[in-house]
Amino acid sequence: MKQSQLFTKTRKEAPKDEVSKNAQLLIKAGFVDKEMAGVYSFLPLGLLVLKKIENIIREEMNRAGGQEVLMTVLQDKATWEKTGRWSDDVVDNWFKTKLKSGAELGLGFTHEEVIAKIMKNFVSSYKDLPFYAYQIQTKFRNEQRAKSGLMRCREFLMKDLYSFSKNKEEHEEFYEKMKDVYMKVFDRLGMGEKTYLTISSGGSFSKYSYEFQTLSEAGEDEVYIVDEEKKIAINKDDFNDEILADFSLNLKESELKKVKSIEVGDIYSLGHRFSEAFNLTYKNKEGKEEFVYMGSYGMSPTRLMGAVVELNSDENGIIWPENIAPFTVHLIVLNSKNETANENIIKTAEKIYKDFQEKEIDVFYDDREKSSFGEKLKDADLIGIPIRILITEKTLKEDSVEVKKRNESESKMVKVADVGSVV
RNA sequence: CGGGGCGUAGUGUAACGGCUAACAUGCUCGGUUUGGGACCGAGUGACUCCGGGUUCGAAUCCCGGCGCCCCGACCA
Q1: Which phi and psi angles does A14 have, rounded to 5°?
Q2: Per-residue pLDDT tens over the stretch A286-336
Q3: Pairing between strand A281-283 and A221-227?
Q4: Which nucleotide's C1' is closest to A273 (Cα)?
Q5: Distance A15 CA to B15 C1' (A)
Q6: Residue spans in chain A of domains classed CATH 3.40.50.800
Q7: How many helices (H) and strands (E) does chain A have?
Q8: Are A3 and A353 in contact (CB under 8 A)?
Q9: How far, CA to CA in Å, does A140 sit from each of A39, A223, A303?
Q10: A372-378 long-range CB contacts below 8 Å, 24 or more apart?
Q11: Quick one: CATH architecture of A3-314?
Q12: DSSP single-letter state for residue A185
């Protein structure tokens, strides 16, 4: 894409109503726009990143056997009353609204009830199990306090996968597998090194569950690191003698390192809670009815985008990991006042731009005529595309372009003819 | 939901209860520049969050709302 055609612009000043690094940088660079607290629009650059994150998640969910669906946002009160979760005393972050008729509806904050109800239509025999369904969809949670930019929103994208198994053993096999699948996603997002499988209390569904916590000062959570090598931690809130005994851990709180972290995923064993509420059963080999054993697995692409920015930036801007950068290459021309030289600069840039496009390399071409080069270079640093290729009168005198990686300080000259080799 | 801070051109800031609400940046036009948001000049842009009150006079003081940020609580 040509930068001259992008409707967003960068800003010099960070917005005064944002303190978090992720929101400041993403707004300054034009990736997102804030509609209100905890509610953000994704602009062209931001959407490119979000789609890449989604696709990584989608690929890994598909590989794990997930089947993608898209469930509804508007949800029937009756469905939720089956589990008692319609009540505001049980769930305090509902957004609720009404039909013209006066009937009450909720805006989905999760989908266990909805999917359990759907599956009644399709599950009847042990031969139907196990299977896994997931979606990537907008969730609404009426947070009492939205904060930290993209990391705690009232409207956000969530990947939620639900597993349907015959019994606990079959469930646990998949549950274990999902730990690796999740870590694979975090690896591909460039945050695997800092992400810990974290033991936590399981809420109302089971005694324990696992969270994935990425170490960062920007996080809301705190974890005790149990094993740095294996990347295991315990959520600070859940650290007690019981949990240590149950996991056969011999640890002293005073000897553990406590680190702030961002919760980037969670996986739950749901057991029969929802299958009982919806009478979701199957016939086993003996012809006896049994309840389906469920699990749920959450991960938010929008929060991940915020987390990636928290982890990857410097004083000049964002440093996108290659896998999810909006573009792979930022091709920048610095125009010359010498007409012949300028023609050559533009001709060379256009050719490289076209070649990259033909090779399906994502290239962002800064073809803007600016009165100062500094502005173009500052923009490039702020936007944070991994590889910067500069074409100027000077570089072309050597028949070359200058190549610099965003995460390195040194640049190198590369012959125009060899420019394809830098990607 | 408790506590604290704040609300002024697109953005960031300023303005004692008193001149036409100022400065920077952005944007437009003209010119000079050309490897880190360069320079000069001329323009453009504000119902000072909303509603009420006090006052001769309110961006400024008071009351009530709404919104934003931070700390805490909360976070199936």
Answers
A1: -75, 145
A2: 999 999 999 999 999 999 999 999 999 999 999 999 999 999 999 999 999
A3: unpaired
A4: B76
A5: 22
A6: 327-422
A7: 11, 23
A8: no
A9: 10, 27, 14
A10: A373/A334, A376/A332, A376/A334, A377/A332, A378/A10, A378/A316
A11: 2-Layer Sandwich (3.30)
A12: H
Place of tokens 């400041």: A24
Structure tokens at A391: 């074409």
For residue A131, what are the β-bridge partners? A164
User: Which nucleotide, over all strands, has the C1' atom closest to the CA of A23?
Assistant: B69
- Which nucleotide has the least CA–C1' distance to A141? B75
Contact call for residues A82 and A114 (beta carbons, < 8 A): no
Q: Is the pLDDT of residue A204 over 80?
A: no
List of residues 6+ apart from A158 with CB closer than 8 A: A110, A136, A137, A138, A139, A298, A299, A300, A301
One-character DSSP codes across A223-271: EEEEETTTTEEEEGGG-SHHHHHHTT----GGGSEEEEEEEEEEEEEEE
pLDDT in tens, A15-50: 999 999 999 999 999 999 999 999 999 999 999 999
Radius of gyration of chain A (CA): 25
Q: What angle do CA A404, A407, A410 make, to 5 degrees?
A: 45
Which residue's entry shows tokens 């359990």? A116
The pair phi, psi for residue A375, each rounded to 5°, is -60, -40
Asked whether residue A143, judged by its CB, lies under 7 Å from any atom of the DNA or RNA strand B, the reply is yes
Residues A95-110: tens digit of each pLDDT: 999 999 999 999 999 9
Superfamily the domain A327-422 falls into: Anticodon-binding domain (3.40.50.800)
**Residue pair A11/A27 in contact by the 8 Å Cβ criterion:** yes
Burial degree of A338 (CB within 10 A; 0-12, 13-18, 19+): exposed
Task: Give CATH 3.30.930.10 domain extents, chain A.
Answer: 3-314
**3-state SS of A160-171?**
EEEEEECCHHHH
Asked if strand B contacts A410 at the CB level, meaning under 7 A, the answer is no
CA distance A227 to A233: 7
The interface predicted TM-score (ipTM) is: 0.95
Determine the angle formed by the axes of helices A301-311 and A21-28, rounding to 10 degrees: 90
Token pair 């196990």: residue: A130
Nearest protein residue to the C1' atom of B68, measured from CA: A17
Assign A390 to helix, strand or coil: strand
Cis-peptide, bond into residue A130, ω within 30° of zero: yes
Strand partners, A391: A333
